[in-house]
Design brief:
Blueprint lengths: L1 E7 L7 H11 L3 E5 L10 H6 L4 E5 L7 E5 L3 E5 L11 E6 L7 E6 L13 H17 L6 E6 L12 H4 L7 H14 L2 E2 H5 L9 E2 L12 E2 L2 E5 L1 H4 L2 E6 L15 E5 L2
Parallel strand pairs: 1-2, 7-8
Antiparallel strand pairs: 1-14, 2-4, 3-4, 5-6, 6-7, 8-12, 9-12, 10-11, 13-14
Helix pairs in contact: 3-5
The chain binds one DNA strand of 15 nucleotides through loops.
Length: 264
DNA sequence: ATGGTGGGTAGCCCA
């Protein structure tokens, strides 16, 4: 069995205590973090080592973005894709060398895309779509069992948002984003593990804005975080959960962790 | 219709 977690932590240095709590309470074998907001030089390796997570692949950036894959079983970094070609740290790929050997684990942080869902008015929105298009071309070439996890910054299904109609023009749930993400899905035949085990139309959110007095009030969440697997790997997924309670931890991230277990 | 909050870093960007 192998247990893999993914979490947009929104500053790993500020929230290292929450990360430690997750590792102690859930004991995943591998943790994929997004938005670490730091470079490797100032990454809190000691905290991870002390808990037995001695294998690291850190693709960091000062102040913004950044991803890290941390493991207690051996991993080997194999790629750092820059799907925007602008130097932002938004991906790291590893292969798993211990139990679960043969699996490739891709950790990605898709650009949020700004506020206006229009390429002309808002270049960031175009960059988000272009990032996904390049990721799609990459996905066509995958020839090994792969799990891609992270903050995709898109909630594709109606039941992935608190109000479908109200969010149709809100970046993260616009039809053009959903279609672009669908093309990525079709390029490899990805299986959406979260939705295999928490089937639509059941409510499923992984993010709640900071801009609310009480995040529970109205439950205005969105499913921005995902774990998608190659078909043969998806067949071996035995459990999946969303740690909603982490949104209530002291000084929380606006995202909560996702965890999937595989019988490997 | 609007602005609301949070993190990082150094006078704003990004989410």
């Amino acid at each position: 069995m192998i247990k893999i977690a993914s979490w947009n932590i929104n500053s790993v240095r500020l929230r290292i205590g929450l990360v430690e709590r997750l590792l102690m309470e859930e004991a995943p074998d591998i943790l994929c973090l997004q938005e670490i907001k730091t470079v490797a030089e100032t990454f809190p390796f000691e905290a991870f080592n002390a808990l037995g997570y001695t294998h690291h692949a850190v693709h960091g950036q000062k102040g913004y973005h950044g991803v890290a894959t941390i493991s207690r079983i051996p991993i080997r970094e194999i790629s750092r894709h820059d799907w925007q070609d602008n130097g932002e740290a938004r991906h790291v790929g590893v292969e798993v060398l211990g139990p679960g050997q043969g699996m490739v684990l891709e950790n990605v942080y898709v650009p949020a895309g700004g506020d206006i869902p229009d390429r002309e008015e808002n270049p960031k929105f175009g960059q988000k779509l272009d990032f996904l298009a390049r990721m799609t071309r990459w996905a066509e070439t995958i020839d090994r069992p792969t799990l891609i996890v992270g903050d995709f910054n898109i909630a594709p299904l109606e039941s992935d948002v608190w109000n479908h109609k109200q969010l149709l023009k809100v970046v993260s749930h616009t039809p053009i984003e959903v279609e672009t993400l669908q093309r990525f899905k079709d390029a490899h035949g990805w299986v959406d593990i979260g939705r295999e085990l928490i089937r639509a139309p059941e409510r499923y959110y992984s993010w709640w804005s900071y801009r609310a007095k009480d995040w529970k009030d109205g439950d205005r969440g969105r499913r921005l975080d995902h774990m998608w697997a190659s078909p043969e790997l998806a067949n071996q997924a035995t459990g999946h959960k969303v740690l909603e309670q982490a949104r209530d931890w002291e000084q929380p991230s606006d995202h909560v962790p996702l965890i999937t277990e595989f019988a490997l």
